Amino acid sequence: MTTTPSGPRKALGRGLESLLPSRRPAEPPPTAHIQGQSVRDLPVTEIDPNPYQTRAHIDDQALNELAASILVNGIVQPIVVRPMNGRFQLIAGERRWRASQKIGREFVPAVIKQVSNEQAMEMTIVENLQREGLNPMEEARAFDRLSREFNLTQEQMSQKTGKDRASIANLMRLLRLPEAIQQSIEKGELTAGHAKVLLMLDSPEAILAAAQKIRSASLSVRQTEELIHRLLAPQDGTAQDPKPQRVVDPNVRAAEQELQRALGVRVTIRDNKGKGKIIIEYASLEDFDRIVETLSK
């Protein structure tokens, strides 16, 4: 029989105990280190949900699949918590925590951090953005909450989350859409690309009517751009001085649509044999700042 040093056997024992948490003491010592952070096994029942969770819905099937994986392989990536009133509050890893509850796991490996409310919320947003993607409305509300509750500018949010300022601005603009449109985006009936084009319309009524056409005809984003362009085209003329419909070279029209897609506002190109002007319309100072920043890149 081969003799094995006691050191490796102890290490193996600790590994087995992590798979059989019922044998572990109520307050186990640190079991590992990840990038200088102590990882402890914490009782599942002593962890509270994250009040800053940006994910509105957790897919049941995906959660069941994660639970099955944890049952076989354990939790590879520890959750992140912070001490709160004698218990622990979840910061990152809610799906792993909920999946552990599903299979009756008593302990979960966790990194304990001392962080402020602002830091906890930032960590939650970043963790969600980096893992299973939030839908556009969840992202928009998360950034809006950072702005309102912690008075962060879009530039500061960009620095903290790694997302460029223009993308953050475009996401937050989705909150201007009627509630019914926001729900359609969350359900996947409309994409963020559709929503960006719809924002070129001024009134909620016009937006709702256009969205209905998009859904009923299953229009692509490019087809939606053409629809919105047709809806806006009558504004180019006046009832007092009717003029023939503007004839636009296909290349110019394609350039208009490309600029509108990039800037998220109405763009008109007046071309006269290679000379002319580009008219960019904006509805707010926020739009103006975002356009200037986009064009400056």
If you had to describe this structure to a student in words, what would you say it looks like?
The chain has three domains: 17-116, Conserved hypothetical protein from pyrococcus furiosus pfu- 392566-001, ParB domain (Alpha-Beta Complex); 178-236, Arc Repressor Mutant, subunit A; 247-297, no CATH class. It has 13 helices and eight strands. The strands form two sheets. It has a six-stranded mixed β-sheet with strand order 1-2-6-4-5-3, sandwiched between helices. The model is unreliable at 1-31 and 236-244 (pLDDT under 50). The protein has helices spanning 6-19, 60-73, 94-102, 117-130, 136-150, 154-161, 165-173, 179-187, 192-198, 204-217, 221-232, 250-263, 285-296; strands at residues 32-34, 37-43, 47-48, 79-84, 87-92, 107-112, 267-272, 275-280. It is an alpha/beta fold.
Record keyword descriptors for this entry.
297 residues; alpha/beta; Conserved hypothetical protein from pyrococcus furiosus pfu- 392566-001, ParB domain; Arc Repressor Mutant, subunit A; six-stranded mixed beta sheet; two-stranded antiparallel ribbon; 8 strands; 51% helix; 14% strand; disordered N terminus
| Low-pLDDT regions | 1-31, 236-244
Radius of gyration: 26 Å
Total number of domains: 3
Helix/strand/pairing class, anyone?
Answer: alpha/beta
Q: Indicate the CATH topology of the largest domain.
A: Conserved hypothetical protein from pyrococcus furiosus pfu- 392566-001, ParB domain
The CATH class of the largest domain: Alpha Beta
Q: Which CATH architecture of the largest domain would you pick?
A: Alpha-Beta Complex
Strand content: 5-15%
Helix content: 40-55%
- What sort of overall outline do the alpha carbons produce when their principal axes are compared? elongated
What strand line-up does the widest sheet have? Answer: 1-2-6-4-5-3
Amino-to-carboxy terminus distance: 70 Å
